[in-house]
Amino acid sequence: MAWSYRRRIKIIPGIHLNFSKNGISTSIGVRGANVTFGKSGTYLNTSIPGLGISNRQKLGGSGSNELSQNNYPYSAVVEDNIFSADVQEITSQDMQGIKEAILSALQQRNELKNDLLKIQATLASSKLKLTISYILLFGLIKKSISDNIKTDINTQKEAVNQLKEQIENCYVGLDINFDPEISSKYNRLVDCFKRLTTSKKIWDVTSAHYQDTRVTRSSAGTVVKKREVKFGIKSIPDIKSKFEALWFNNANGADLYFYPNFIIMYSSKVDFAVIGLDEIDFSQSYVRFTETGTIPQDSKIIDRTWAKVNKNGTPDKRFKGNYQIPVVRYGEITLRTKTGLNEEYEFSNYEFTEEFGKAFKDYQITIKSLRPIY
Question: End of a domain among 121, 151, 168?
Answer without folding.
Answer: 168
